[in-house]
What we know:
Layout: E1 6-10, E2 12-13, E3 28-29, H1 32-40, E4 44-48, H2 55-63, E5 67-70, H3 94-110, E6 114-117, H4 119-127, E7 131-133, H5 136-139, E8 161-165, H6 170-175, E9 179-182, E10 189-192, E11 197-202, E12 208-213, E13 219-222, H7 234-250
Helix pairs in contact: 3-4
Amino acid sequence: MSYRPTIGIPTQTLHAIDGIPPGLPHSWVMNQRYYYAAIGAGAVPWMVPLVDDDLDTLRAIYDRLDGVFLAGGVDLDPATYGAEPHPKLGNTDPARDTVELALARWALEEDKPLLGLCRGLQVINVALGGSLHQDLEAECPDFIKHDYFPNAGYERDHLAHEVQLVSGSRLAATFRTPRVTVNSMHHQGIKDLGTDLVATAFAPDGLVEAIELADRGFVVGVQWHPEMLEERDPRTRQLFREFAAAASQFAGH
């Protein structure tokens, strides 16, 4: 792949992150691992600012992208899927919600390649009319543990549980195995699937761990964090390479 596609990765608001003291100036930040994963796949990452009050500028940014990459982060505001806040809802980032939902919907309308990781999977689901469990432990007490967070002492590459990949799916073809062991850093998850989405991986408790859009271009979301695993796992690295290849093809290269 000689052409290097431009991949937009939205940022997040610094003060929305747990442990950040209040009163700091607003800043847009994002974990470096997402950008390195894109670079390693042959793409050129573009940090997308949260210009939620200037959708014309956001659209101009979007129009220059060959693909959209939605990263992990804080909880989506439940108002985005018509729900009231649960007592265990975590921090939210309204500006990020607005920007990412707009980017996802534009990409879905134009078949521009779209990849979502953890929160990014949830954004894709909500963009297509789906809903979320706001806290898995409270709402689904029979489920396994999913919240292996770094602030609780777990490494971000801690392998937490297996997922079962659905035969015939893009992910199954990418990983070339029916099961993958993944990391897990989330307390929310898909409740109702969005329109036309297909669940393509499941946790042992039945939670949807991956989604794809049926009979369309590259639209993939996974509930885990492959950006933390791709350096040591060639199968995970292949997921990012296929995304970059789809973005290059979208750009006509």
